[in-house]
Amino acid sequence: MNGGQGPSSMKLILASNSAARRHMLANAGYRFDATAANIDERALKIAHLDAGLPVDDLALVLADAKAQAVSADHPADLVIGSDQVLTCDGKVFSKVSDLSQAADQLAELQGKTHVLVSAVACWRHNQPVFQISETADMTMFRLTTKDINMYLTDAGPSILGSVGCYQIEGKGIRLFEDIQGSHFTIMGMPLTPLVKFLKSQSDLL
Q1: Which residue of 74, 111, 130, 192 could cross-link 142, Cys pair, CB 3.0 to 4.6 Å?
Q2: Active site residue ranges
Q3: What is the CA radius of gyration of the chain?
Q4: Is residue 27 classed as helix, strand or coil in its secondary structure?
Q5: Residue among 167, 71, 173, 81 at smallest CA distance from 121
Q6: Does this model's pTM top 0.85?
Q7: DSSP string spanning 111-136?
Q8: Across all residues in the chain, what is the average pLDDT?
Q9: Contact 150, 77 (CB under 8 A)
Q10: DSSP state of 171
Q11: Cα–Cα–Cα angle for 8, 13, 19, rounded to 5 degrees
Q12: pLDDT band at 167 (very low <50, low <70, confident <90, very high)
């Protein structure tokens, strides 16, 4: 299934430089351009949380902001924005910058169930045309400091690209006692409902 490139077809644009999201969309058979949205994610998160708005809505707020920002420069095209938020015990977690911080974060998540909320938003003609979010419940085994350090040594710095400091498609799977949710949601984009929406768009083949 390829995004149509004929004279009357709109382009498909992914408002993200995420390798995982690019990989998912390409594997689904779509042709698309990818460009990072110029938004201040940290400021948006702070404003949302300071306003006391639901944490579960944050991923969709960020996805929508990404799509809107890129759509402003490409109004005739279909722009896809996506984001993911991890919460545990009412706290919102962010990506860490080094393996020492990763160890601290995994120590905080071990033995608990945390929630991944992944959202996707599509914009065209300066307005939203599709929005959805999905959740996944991720229960980690109880891990000792030794367990965590061995895992980080084995997995290496590539896990810093994941908000939870794990890559479920690789060595990160061994951290989990139970997982409830779509694989695509865990990877960072609700792909199944997105594909259903894209199939409804007559300008995409």
Answers
A1: 111
A2: 83
A3: 18
A4: helix
A5: 81
A6: yes
A7: TSEEEEEEEEEEEETTEEEEEEEEEE
A8: 91
A9: no
A10: G
A11: 145
A12: confident
Nearest to 126, CA basis, from 79, 81, 83: 79
Q: Helices in the chain by DSSP H: which ranges?
A: 19-27, 41-50, 58-71, 99-109, 145-155, 183-187, 191-199
Q: CATH top-level class for 12-199? A: alpha beta
Task: State residue 140 phi and psi, 5-degree precision.
Answer: -85, 150
Which of 204, 166, 191 is CA-nearest to residue 27? Answer: 191
Cα 43 from chain centroid? 18
The pLDDT of residue 52 is 86
Q: Phi-psi region for residue 85, left (φ > 0), alpha (ψ -120 to 50) or beta? A: beta
pLDDT in tens, 115-165: 999 999 999 998 999 999 999 999 999 999 999 999 999 999 999 988 999
- Give the pair of three-digit tokens for residue 79: 């722009």
157: Cβ–Cβ under 8 A, 6 or more apart, which residues? 99
| Numbers of helices and strands, H then E, in the chain | 7, 7
Report the half-sphere exposure of 180 (CA within 13 A, side-chain side).
6
Which tokens belong to 161?
A: 């690209």
Buried/exposed code over 149-161 (b: 16+ C-beta within 10 A; e: otherwise): eebbeebeeebbe
Domain boundaries defined on the chain: 12-199
